[in-house]
Design goal:
mainly alpha, 18 helices, binds tryptophan, 464 residues, single chain, globular, Amino acid/polyamine transporter I
Length: 464
């Protein structure tokens, strides 16, 4: 026998987060992202305010938290990356496809996310320079198209974002991810509260709050419910191995159900605070509510520039948005990096650099197609620009599918005992009732909800 003896799967002590605080801030850092600022506040307002919030919380409890707990459970139990985890679970090789799909989704999301984050970084500097002083609606639009349509500037800023995120990840789980999220998340909170206070003291504050919070069930449609579900998935970074990978760094004594709930609630609070910072100002200056790039890069500079000390506010606002986008991207990039590092034994630095190069290459396609007037703005695949295609495939197909498969593997192919054992931190805390209920939801309720969403996305059923 000339087999080379390899170390059997010796329990190598893998680097992880050090405290419960670190676990919380890193996970929240992943959840809080561009979604809180340019998607959530607008969607609340447009879909019936408080009514949408109620539905959203319902989706969080019955669809998102179950997926999140499943991912954290698999991650911490196996202490492995998104692909290797399924090898360690000793399930059929098919399930590894969840991990590979997650990695593909991570690349697709990062490609357009880094493009938008690049504009945000640029806008911090533009705000510091005072570029928005006294601008009109036209010049706000002109400045945005200059920032997003060109070739050199968008790509350069995108590369800067990727470099910043890479530097954090190269530093490692503790010295990079943990340290950065623990420092930046509290700063984000403080900045958003400063923006809130200023916005609430404007004359249109009550109108803005009315748009956000008035409970109007007549605006809530079945489509709105699906929007809430999709939003919850995106917000909590689910279905693509992010939470699984972070779960593998969790401390042994972390209460997984508790952390999921705390993160979901805090993330929702950040979205509401963002809405409170934005809409009072928007209504005070007679603008209409908007979302996406229009809101972030045109309406906000326009209205904030009209407020006394608005420029300081703009710097604060873009800075907090940059923090949100950066910590979210860190959690996406960690998915392929952990895979290459642990499964393929590529040193961390080399793994990060290879991933960074791939993101840049795909990211350039996103950057050059972000606007109709961009170089590749007219190029369509399946009727979508690259930018929109990457968003559609990742958000509407890969993420819900990944979430669905994770529920199925946990609910139907792993043992309930293992699930309860891990959630109770190997028997040291009493979570039996919660785990039992959650298990039922995982097995029967959430998969059905996700199938409905999926059939609707594919146009097989139409909820109106
Ligand atoms: N949650 C982030 C946001 O709201 C985005 C995000 C980070 C994400 N990691 C993810 C989305 C993983 C999907 C999957 O902006």
């Amino acid at each position: 026998m000339k087999s080379i003896e390899k170390e059997p799967d010796a329990p190598i002590k893998k680097e992880g987060f050090t405290t419960g605080f670190a676990v919380f801030f890193a996970t929240l850092g992943s959840a809080v992202g561009l979604g809180n600022i340019w998607k959530f506040p607008y969607l609340i307002g447009a879909n019936g305010g408080g009514a949408f919030l109620i539905v959203y919380l319902f989706c969080i409890i019955f669809a998102c938290m179950p997926v999140m707990v499943c991912e954290l459970f698999i991650g911490r139990k196996t202490r492995s990356n998104a692909v290797q985890a399924f090898e360690k679970l000793k399930v059929k090789p098919f399930w590894k496809s969840i991990g590979f799909m997650g990695i593909i989704a991570a690349f697709l999301i990062m490609s357009f996310y880094s493009c938008v984050a690049g504009w945000v970084y640029l806008y911090i500097f533009k705000a510091i320079k005072g570029d928005f002083a006294g601008i009109s609606a036209q010049s706000a639009a002109a400045q945005f198209s200059k920032a997003s349509v060109g070739i050199i500037s968008p790509i350069l800023w995108q590369i800067i974002v990727i470099a910043v995120v890479s530097a954090v990840i190269i530093a490692g789980v503790q010295k990079g991810i943990e340290r950065v999220t623990k420092t930046l998340m509290p700063i984000l909170f403080i900045l958003i509260i400063i923006c809130d206070i200023r916005s609430l003291t404007l004359s249109g504050a009550s109108q803005g709050l009315d748009f956000l919070f008035r409970i109007d069930f007549s605006k809530l449609t079945a489509q709105g419910i699906l929007v809430a579900l999709g939003l919850g998935f995106f917000k909590l970074s689910l279905g693509m191995g992010t939470m699984l990978t972070y779960g593998s760094y969790y401390t042994d004594d972390n209460n997984l159900i508790g952390t999921s709930a705390k993160v979901a609630v805090s993330d929702t609070i950040v979205s509401i605070l963002a809405g409170v910072a934005i809409f009072p100002a928007v209504f005070t200056f007679g603008m209409g509510p908007d979302n996406g790039p229009g809101l972030l890069f045109m309406t906000i500079p326009l209205v904030f520039s009209k407020i006394p000390f608005g420029n300081v506010l703009l710097v604060a606002f873009f800075f907090l948005t940059a923090i949100a986008a950066t910590t979210a991207m860190i959690s996406m990039m960690e998915v392929p990096v952990a895979y290459l590092n642990e499964s393929k034994k590529i040193p961390r630095k080399k793994a990060v650099l290879s991933v960074a190069v791939i993101i840049m290459l795909i990211g350039i396609l996103a950057s050059l197609s972000a606007d109709g007037a961009s170089l590749l703005g007219g190029a369509k695949v399946f009727g979508l620009t690259f930018f929109n295609l990457f968003d559609f495939v990742s958000s509407n197909i890969l993420m819900p599918l990944g979430g669905f498969l994770i529920l199925i593997v946990v609910g139907w192919f792993l043992s309930k005992k293992d699930f309860e054992y891990e959630l109770s931190n190997k028997g040291s805390i009493n979570t039996k009732t919660a785990a039992d209920m959650l298990y039922l939801v995982i097995k029967y309720v959430t998969p059905v909800l996700l199938i409905i969403v999926f059939l609707n996305t594919l146009g097989i059923i139409r909820l109106s």
